[in-house]
Amino acid sequence: MTDTQLAIVILAAGQGTRMKSSLPKVLHPIGGRPLVAHVISTARDLDAAYVRVVVRHERDRVAEAIDDGGADLQIVDQDEIPGTGRAVEVALQQLPGDFGGDVLVLSGDVPLLEASELAELIAAHRASGAAATLLSARMPDPTGYGRVVRAADGTVERIVEQKDASADEAAIDEINAGVYVFRAAQLRAHIGAVGTANSQGERYLTDVIGLLRAAGDQVAATVAPDPRVALGVNDRIQLAEAARILNDRIVRRWQREGVTVMDPATTWIDETVTLAPDVTVRPNTQLLRATVVATGAVIGPDTTLTDCEVGEHARVTRTDGTLAVIGARASVGPFAYLRPGTYLGADGKIGTFVETKNARIGDASKVPHLSYVGDAEVGVGANIGAGTIVANYDGVAKHRTEVGDHVRTGSHNVFVAPVRIGDGAYTGAGTVVRKDVPPGALALLAAPQRNIEGWVGRSRPGTAAAEAAERAEQGGQEED
């Protein structure tokens, strides 16, 4: 049920200069989604009455990435006044004037918090009667984080940012996770008084804590049992750390659901992937974006699948695939490259060093070795010989090739599209097919083989090949 006394503000306005990237910090992905998308998802799990996301840097780009049309989510524009305090102030202005509940403030670059942990924070805040409750964590290395300075009675006295901390304050290992719950009335009363007297010239939200204390209000802090959940992403090192922690969670979740992950340390699974029980994921495998794998399939080793669908009991080995569908009991790889638009039917095979693109390969059909099949349709039960190339591009436009049911093509064929090979037809080795082949026909190149005897000895005298040929000729004469 909707919590009518809860509003959530997500801060996504910052540039993130330490990322050294043209991509806004909150749009850097982990687990297949932008950082801020993880925070929004967690916020939605709390069923708040209002969700406000504050944007500024690369406003349109960030807004496009996060606006999913949900009625509860509203994008709020921060003006040119910098700082988290100003971001929360403009978000408050977009809440109903009579809202008197609690305001949960989340950072768009703190992606690992789960709804259950935030629900406990909100419950502790409401039980304590504090004007504000913040989430903290104890870090072995607190560098880069704001420090939580506590009073003698254990309540929070103030928060000091790293750049403004004294030597004693910098030695504190309890850090501010950038997550707060405020009573809306007290937050409104003090947010406008936040100034810019700091090294960055910004309006810090953390200053509200000091203002509340000066007004005699209580401020509490709840220490996260696992400091990793409070990990904020400010640079590429922390991005990698957060990605690893999230991936470990995802892998363990699928293991509990009945998926065998042989080497979790080398397996990466996006949060958006769907796996069935009894799937086996072998080492050095990445399952990305909207990939779906059905029961009994074996994926890997050394495989990357992006937006792919894998059927029951299929096997995919040492393969790179994108936007491909692999049928039940089919076999792919090793060293296959499935490009977008590939469809392999049930019991089919795409084998070693085969590349496919925009190709539909029917049930029980095989492309076993060293072939390129693009812009083509292969029927049921066909076998494409080793080294076959579908020449689908004439330099201006791409054309389709059709191969019928139960066709058998020879090795080292070239199909020059557009061309159709009829049902049950055969083609000879080395054939270049430029015209349609009727059903049941055998297509061959007309030119016979020609041997020019003695050519090596005359044209390449003194070479190892010429000497070997001479010895073979002499040996044959001696036998005669």
The first-level CATH class of the largest domain is given as Alpha Beta
The main pleated sheet reads as:
14 strands, parallel
**Which fold name corresponds to the CATH topology of the largest domain?**
Spore Coat Polysaccharide Biosynthesis Protein SpsA, Chain A
Q: What is the CA-atom radius of gyration, in angstroms?
A: 33 Å
CATH superfamily of the largest domain: Spore Coat Polysaccharide Biosynthesis Protein SpsA, Chain A
Detail the poorly predicted runs: none
Mean pLDDT: 94
If you had to describe this structure to a student in words, what would you say it looks like?
- The chain is of the alpha/beta class.
- The protein folds into two domains: 3-230, Spore Coat Polysaccharide Biosynthesis Protein SpsA, Chain A; 250-443, UDP N-Acetylglucosamine Acyltransferase, domain 1.
- The chain is built from ten helices and 38 strands.
- The strands form seven sheets. Strands 13, 14, 16, 17, 19, 20, 22, 23, 25, 26, 28, 30, 32 and 35 form a 14-stranded parallel beta sheet that branches. A seven-stranded mixed beta sheet has the order 5-4-1-6-10-7-11, with helices on both faces. A seven-stranded parallel beta sheet has the order 12-15-18-21-24-27-29, with helices on one face.
- Strand 8 and strand 9 form a beta hairpin.
- The longest helix has 21 residues, at 236-256.
- The chain is elongated.
- The mean pLDDT is 94.
